[in-house]
Amino acid sequence: MDNKKQHIAIFTTASLPWMTGTAVNPLFRAAFLAKDGSRKVTLVIPWLSLQHQKLVYPDNITFTSPSEQQVYVRHWLQERISFSPTFSIQFYPAKFAVDKRSILSVGDISEVIPDEDADVAVLEEPEHLTWFHHGKRWKTKFRLVIGIIHTNYLEYIKREKNGRVKALVVKYINSWVVDIYCHKVIRLSAATQDYPNSIICNVHGVNPKFLEIGKKKIELQQSGNGNQAFTKGAYYIGKMVWSKGYKELLKLLRDNQKELTGLEVDLYGSGEDSDQVQAAAKKLDLVVRVYPGRDHADPVFHDYKVFLNPSTTDVVCTTTAEALAMGKIVVCANHPSNEFFKQFVNCWTYDNSKGFVEATSRALTEEPAELTGAERHELSWEAATERFLKVADLDQVFARKPEKSLLKNFASISLNTRMEDVSAYLHYVALGSETSRRAFGAIPGSLQPDEELCKELGLAIPAATQGSKDPVNTS
Question: Which residue numbers delimit the Glycosyl transferase family domain (predicted)?
């Protein structure tokens, strides 16, 4: 046992080419955890059949096999880091739920990792991965299960019709499933739902490409040849849906048009609310230009000096971190989601409309401070990995024995069974039939992978699913 390398399996809810946080951040986490070679790391990502890939992956990118997608993922990563990572990639069967705009797992995805390698499981978005889980209990399979809370689901739900009632139900179920399946919970910021015995720590870093851009800006600032490092004004980039800060930003601009006379703002994003955002921008007296979304590392963004981000739905906003890494001034709301960023001299927060006007006006007239070496490190994935290892207590893994299952397969319960075990048993039973799963909100046919998914992933085809077709969930 002493000679065995600790194995960390990182399960996440999305994969490239879908450019979402749970596709990108776990990929970097896997690479940097494996960097020094002291541990084995496996990144476990969803595999979608072709019809589901077409629903979620951008630019008509699709894959005929998991190995083809793995090549794509590794190539994307290799273009952004300076070392050759040694982690492995495994796929679990999944489907895309159109109504939830989410990829959801199918079957017992813990089976992807052999029992002899089941040391540590990192569940990126544990509530997302465990709501519909039916199979071996994560705490039984792994010695240590760490949940990392990425998303402020409750804030999004509150904005829906009857949102406050829905949010109460979701809050309860999230707490239930995360408690059942995770030993530790890491919340990226206090903007997330609170969980018992959780710790708040930002264990995310910035794509190294942005730090390189910032380094070049510092060199330009220090050159002393009269060249301006930043020649453009203010901008914002984000998925173009109202809940991603556009509603707040356009309201701030509308309410303060007189005070902000002469301000020009460029908005970049694509999404279902693009037309409405453009229409609202045109009604302003200020110059607000709207452009389609593009990669934040694109050269078009390098010369902007001020990043305006009034969003309060993010947990730790990736684009804010990227803007700081590039050396820009960030003007953002004084909100728990931005607590990590307050340590940086170029992060300027505001409490109200007046504060937004003052911070924005000052940012446009002043130059950003040069990023210090300490600030650059704090934004990096090296620092994020250090923070993760510190709060995860991985040294305790081999000292911890895997928890005993509820009499193997949850077959029965003794009177002395802990309440948590009873709770886990109830969840197992509730998610064990198609009818109850559907009532819970699961995708049709997600109890076991269908024949198509089994063939594509090289899995044995369960007798119950032979000849089954995959109904795409468009409800």
Answer: 235-367
